[in-house]
Design goal:
single chain, 369 residues, alpha/beta, Rhomboid-like fold, six-stranded mixed β-sheet, two-stranded antiparallel sheet, elongated
Length: 369
């Protein structure tokens, strides 16, 4: 697992397995979860100081990488708690502003601190930590990492055996910021254009960046292959695409990560536009094209290849994916002048992008092992 957090201790518990603990340092991990689990609870033990370079962005990226790593193996849900060992809670409370589960152990006050918007308990850990705090510190206020790690390891082992996973464990929901941002761009662009004219007018849309076969090849205005991805013909066109983007994009962003989601979205949208205009050119048609559907079919393809690669442990997700694909096809069949070649190009390139990322993750896991 890639991470910029040096000297982190990972305590992992699955539904089937007993607790296993691994020490990770200098970007090296020896973790092996052993077998397939439906749910995983993980505690990440960190220490901070004035010289610490730990940032909230690093913690969030670590969370996303852990989700990708385990969800790729068929795990249905992973719950992660960052347990920060701090000598300055005013400095470190900034971590509470992120999209992570976060507790602080104040080394000076010798107490566990849980902020209001954080889970009140995590797999029964709160009571165990409070019970063991005196033993962990051994009556001293100074920070003793080895003593703390042994104490937490003891707590974790006490939680193993027949202790069950809490189905109602309080965890913070993943917020698909990139998906929301892309939706806002499309909506703002549409609103601005509507104040200037009619988005259902082909000449008006050509004037403001829609893809137009003649201008692409006679004027070399290739930028239209990109700008057309953020334009829509009317409110119905925009609404159907934004609903699909929200439903599919949020899941793809969570599973692949934010940066990879952006790559998949833009790449597949461009491929869809290129294939569509290539067909138009070969068939001597001058067509005005716009819409995010090529990219939406692309992220759908990326999601489908991920789920089908691990279909043995994702049967329920396969059903939802098929329903979503049927929903997109239905929209295409009931809407006039649908650019099916853009959809096809986006979907195929999405499958390819997803497969490449999956292969890259698998190679990375094997290399780390």
């Amino acid at each position: 697992m890639m991470t910029n957090m040096s000297k982190a201790n990972f305590f992992v518990r699955t539904e089937q397995d007993n607790v296993k603990d691994d020490d990770e340092g200098d970007d090296k991990s020896n973790h092996n979860s052993g077998g397939k689990a439906k749910r995983i609870n993980m505690i990440i033990n960190l220490s901070t100081s004035e010289k610490s370079s730990l940032t909230l962005a690093q913690m969030e990226e670590t969370l996303h990488e852990l989700e990708r790593k385990y969800l790729l193996t068929g795990v249905e849900k992973i719950n992660v708690l960052f347990l920060v060992y701090s000598d300055n809670i005013e400095r470190d409370k900034v971590f509470n502003n992120g999209n992570i589960n976060f507790w602080i152990i104040d080394t000076l006050a010798k107490q566990l601190i849980i902020y209001e918007d954080q889970p009140e308990d995590f797999d029964g850990l709160k009571c165990e930590i409070e019970k063991h705090l005196d033993d962990i510190y051994n009556g001293k206020a100074a920070y003793q990492k080895r003593r703390y790690v042994r104490g937490l390891r003891s707590v974790s082992k006490n939680m193993s055996g027949s202790y069950g996973i809490d189905e109602n464990l309080q965890t913070r929901r993943f917020i698909p910021y990139i998906t929301i941002f892309i939706m806002l761009i499309n909506i703002v662009v549409f609103a601005v254009l509507e104040t200037m004219g009619s988005t259902e007018s082909a000449p008006f849309m050509i004037q403001h960046g829609a893809s137009y076969t003649e201008y692409l090849f006679s004027r070399n205005e290739y930028y239209r292959l990109f700008t057309c991805m953020f334009l829509h013909f009317g409110i119905a066109h925009l609404s159907s695409n934004m609903i699909a983007l929200l439903l599919i994009g949020s899941e793809v962003e969570r599973l692949y990560g934010r940066l990879r989601f952006v790559v998949i979205y833009l790449m597949t949208g461009l491929v869809g536009s290129v294939l569509s205009e290539a067909i138009n050119f070969m068939t001597s048609k001058n067509v005005v094209s716009a819409g995010a559907s090529g990219a939406i079919y692309g992220i759908q393809g990326a999601l489908m290849i991920l789920v089908f690669r691990y279909r043995d442990t994702n049967k329920s997700k396969i059903f939802r994916i098929v329903l979503m694909l049927l929903f997109l096809i239905m929209i295409g069949r009931t809407t006039e002048n649908v650019d099916n070649y853009a959809h096809l190009g986006g979907f195929i390139s999405g499958v390819i992008c997803g497969q490449l990322f999956i292969m890259g993750d698998q190679m990375e896991v094997k290399r780390k092992e």
